[in-house]
Amino acid sequence: MKLPALAIISAFACGIALGLHPAIASHASSKQLIIASLLVALLFVLGGLLLCKVGRLYPAAVVSLLSWMVLGFVGVCVAQQPRPALHVISLLEQGRIGLKTPLRWHGHLRDEPARLPWGYGYDITLSDVEYEGALRQAVGGLRLSYFPQDTSEVAPDVHAGDEVSVLTEARRPAVFRDEGAFDRRAYLEQQHIDLVAELRAPQLMERVALGTPTIATRIAQMRRRLRDEIDQLFAGAPQVAAVLRAMLLGDRSFVERDASADFQKTGVFHVLVVAGLHVGAIAFIAFWIARKLRLSPLWSALITLSLLFAYVAVVEQRPPVLRATVMAAIVVLGGFLFRRLDLLNSAAVAALLLLIANPLALGDSSFQLSFLAIGGIAGVAAPWLGKTVEPYARALRGWRDVTRDAAHEARVAQFRIDLRLLSQFLGERLPMKLARPASDSFAMGLRLTFRVWELLFVSAVLQIGMVPLMARDFHRITLSGPLVNLAAVPLTGIIVPLGFFSITAGLPFPALGKILAMPLAWFLELLIHIVQWFAHFPRWSYRIPGPPTWLIAFFFVAMALLVAALRFWVERPPRFTWAICTIWLACGSVIAIYPFHSHWTKGKLELTVLDVGQGDSLFVVSPGGKTMLIDGGGVFGGFQGVEQHRGADPGEEAVSPYLWSRGFQKIDIVALTHAHQDHLGGLTAILENFRVGQLWIGREVSSAALGKLEDIARRKRVPIEHEMQGASFSWDGVEGRFLWPDRQHAGMALLPKNDDSLVLQLHYGERTLMLPGDAERQAEQGILEETDPGTLRADILKVGHHGSKNSTTPEFLAAMQPQVGIISAGEVNPYGHPSPELLERLESAGVRILRTDRDGAVHVLTDGTRIEVSCFVPCAEQRNAQASMQAQAPDHKQGDEHQ
């Protein structure tokens, strides 16, 4: 078997995938199942040895691979064991501690305090917590943020390894309960962060004891010094410093969202993520230095591995860095042992080692993309280039030496002869002093052309190979990637080693550091300008829904067949190679184009109140498939004088993924109720990610955020219309009318107010939906005065202003008489929404209450007569019904309620 490791990792990964299947995952933690699986694996091993002894090698290989599959299943079962009883999440789930009030947490700092654009961040490994007057042992991770209110406040003087105690109100990381939404809680758990909190004042953190100096703490201090050195060397160029921090140390905290988006649009975001490209640059420089010093293979390997391990220590042990380092170490060790390594086999060994250490990494998109990239290079690009361009590139070495022709195949030898004939031709027609330089320049130009073509081809193969996962996980197609990588990859190969040399030299010799920083800044600015220039071409990057699973599977089957076909390519590509390549490219094109229809229920009006935290976002689909998005949630607007954002962007992480999960690429109407951040902030992402027919706005206000949104709409050529009281529309039998804002105050307001909200009423058949935005008492009173009370009745009410006590007044509620009230509010929000007073008011009126902070996204579907209500998290009434009536209604869809 030429690729044994590839077969082993395939079997091992199949076992892990089996263990991760939802039908099995719920039982995977059973100790009896683990013991039984280990016995089965042992039987397979013994069976394989017995078959080898009797000379049945192929059956032995099959049985051995089955044993690896069972071991993969065992590995994922062990990895999915329940959390320890003392883990902080276990304590919360068991009710042994609560997070309703501030608690004093004890632990050790994992790293040096991280300086952020708006403050400081601290990662604490927990040891204890004080709860109800007792000190309870608790393990886990707490991420603490501190935001100084003014320049007089000094951050706590703590360092890596210090034992600290902090008084704060911790909470679990926010998560959006919508279909397709980004799971930030799971993302932070991968970093061993279970709770997040804010430090209200520096006095609330105390250093209990100094940390004992260890290798880890010294490395953390060195990492901090390197960050500070970057900031000092590039104090006048914050954007350059931010990109360099990301490229060298993996710290993207200072990279602005727009700049980060530009790197994503151009397909070179991997430059900002410390991974294979950066590790490769370090390994190449180390190997090049060793060769120049004429060191022995042993010393070359030791120096290269030492630099790699030092690099991993400095940039932290993050999964992409570890994967790339393991891969590089295998290649280095193979070279030292004089082994001719197959890159696919080496990648398989690296993947096997990493999955043995962490079987759950198989489901990580970063892991999948890393090894898919290696597979694309080793399985498709390298073999193809090895049969086409690479022989001619090698032929340019010593092309004047006739005696080397015999070492090349006939067509390549003829190429060398043609080069010498061309040199002779030039020698006869040019002066003697120019003839040889001219022929050498021509050969050098050919060599450069071949290398550029190789880089372009490899980049194109990577872009094509990663299309399914990029579309599935990031919903982005980038067409400019191969071109931008022609500049980004060589520049990264220069910036990474030069950057480390500059900042390390600048620590003992500041003057030398400043001198080296000048060319480094030029290279960085060149990279940034190239990325920005290509990012401004809007059609070269676009967002799409995730492709169907069957199409992704078909794509990778075609890719695997292509890799196998290239292995059998001896002199010229067989016909079936071209056929498979065509099928592979066709699958990639279909994924990139996404010609599939969106999912909606014909003949029914649909309303979805999305969970966007403390904000509003509503999605309406007419019976004929026309779509309207009302608000997009919000994003934190930054601190005074700091144009940075922190926290999640619901438009990018919740609303867009939800729409993509249903296959939507176009939204007919985007409506903004009013220009408050919790309604407006997420719409920037919506206008960037989708084709929008029109933007509807109520009252125009003097707001920088609204002005930016309107500028984006104009740039995207989206018509802007202002809606007021009395305006109406008709969609596929749905009658919509605006009840507010009134036309008497149609001019521009100085500041946005809740009572400026668009209030929309939708009628379909016998059913009515009321969507009042954040309208409060004044607006509701105005609607009652200027509208016939008999027309205000509504079956479904999206409760105004997140359940504030100043909205949904008794008079307004009495006029509507809703059956269901849906409240959109953030979990543990600082405003106390929904108000207990409002909840009592709704309950007294007999209104069934649904809440996004508890039930997740709420879906309402009506055919004009019957109303169906379902929740992302099973609705409270249904949870009770399922507990008592599960046997009577086995086919009832989870989360559905019918009225």
What does this molecule look like?
- The chain contains 31 helices and 25 strands.
- With 899 residues, the chain is an alpha/beta fold.
- A hairpin with a 2-residue loop joins strand 3 (119-131) and strand 4 (134-146).
- Residues 636-645 and 879-899 have low confidence and may be disordered.
How many strands? 25
First-residue to last-residue Cα separation: 63 Å
Low-confidence stretches: 636-645, 879-899
- Specify the helix fraction band: 40-55%
Topology (SSEs and partners):
Blueprint lengths: L3 H17 L1 H4 L5 H23 L3 H23 L8 H6 L9 E7 L4 E3 L2 E13 L2 E13 L16 E6 L15 H6 L5 E5 L5 E5 L5 H19 L4 H12 L7 H9 L10 H17 L4 H19 L3 H18 L6 H15 L7 H23 L2 H6 L14 H20 L2 H34 L1 H8 L1 E3 L2 H26 L3 H26 L5 E3 L5 H19 L7 H19 L11 E5 L8 E4 L5 E4 L19 H12 L4 E7 L4 H4 L2 H7 L1 E7 L6 H12 L4 E3 L5 E4 L2 E7 L18 E6 L2 E5 L5 H10 L9 E3 L11 H7 L3 E4 L12 H9 L3 E4 H4 L2 E5 L4 E5 L4 H10 L10 E3 L1
Parallel strand pairs: 4-6, 12-13, 13-14, 14-15, 19-20, 20-21, 21-22
Antiparallel strand pairs: 1-3, 1-5, 2-3, 3-4, 5-7, 8-9, 10-11, 10-23, 11-12, 16-17, 17-18, 18-19, 23-24, 24-25
